[in-house]
Specification:
Blueprint: H1 2-10, E1 22-30, E2 39-48, E3 53-60, H2 70-73, H3 77-81, H4 86-97, E4 101-104, H5 107-120, E5 129-132, H6 133-140, H7 149-155, H8 166-187, E6 193-195, E7 256-260, H9 267-276, E8 280-282, E9 291-294, H10 302-310, E10 314-315, H11 317-324
Helix pairs in contact: 1-8, 6-8, 7-8
Length: about 325
Amino acid sequence: MLEDLATAVSSPTEWPTAYPQGYAVVDVETTGLARDDRIISAAVYRLDARGEVQDHWYTLVNPERDPGPVWIHGLTSDVLEGAPLFREVAEEFAARLSGRVLVAHNAVFDWQMIAREYARAESEAPVRQRLCTIALSKELGLPLPNHKLETLAAHFGVVQQRAHHALDDARVLAEAFRPSLKAAAASGARLPLQECRPLTEWRDGAAPLIGRQPGGSYGYGGQASGSWRPSRKRPACPYPNPGRYEEGKRLKQGMRIAFSGDTSTDRELLEDRAVEAGLHVATSLSRLTSLLVTNDPDSGTSKVVKARQYGTPVVDEAAFGQLLADVEPA
């Protein structure tokens, strides 16, 4: 497989006509991972149909609230206070995305953050499809020990200079995406494109203004003290449970889906997508559970432990997102 990929990357190939005509490689840094968190910096590398860089763009964004985990992204309140608001850069950002496939590492997260910001600005991002480089790595069968950006970069010999800086992360991803795209084209692989659904409305909860430090701390995967939401009662799933998910097959309406651990997409939004697809979202795991979704299958959470005991299939969030795009009717 490694020899095939090396040959694919180095040798010219007849390009698949069905592949997109351009890409926008995106990275956003944010105040956290929750539904009410905000973008604080964004970068876009525009690539042509074969993954060659055309230009790049970067901006800071004033999130109008606490900047979150400064120890990760390095952007303090003082740095961001004079930055433009998102609505002030929304038009330029949109021009960079227009007519292109959005490419990101764990693309569902970047897309959701971007879609929310545009909804707050009472607008829509001109993006109709996205491509996740994690999903593409799996499609190509790359021998990666994990799916971190630095691991993908190292695989292709790309040197990171400033991890968690949007511009450098976007550069690194663009350089790693190009050989991945060429390998996919050479083998005739199907690109794992996903539909982007823009949000049409948004209402923020109470959030502290930038420069003010709340009593609680913000972290990736954590939430501010004011962002807790009670669990919602869902209507009963109208379809019978068809049993467990089988690898390589489609999800089927009525399957019971459980989630464990942190997710890049806000958990409520992920659950809403599952319910809209006709799946049964379960709050606990039992022998009747069809599938467990977790980004950390080696964790010792009760759901993961029970999944091992019961033999319940387990997939990560990126794989689940792909399965959601094609759910079999009951």
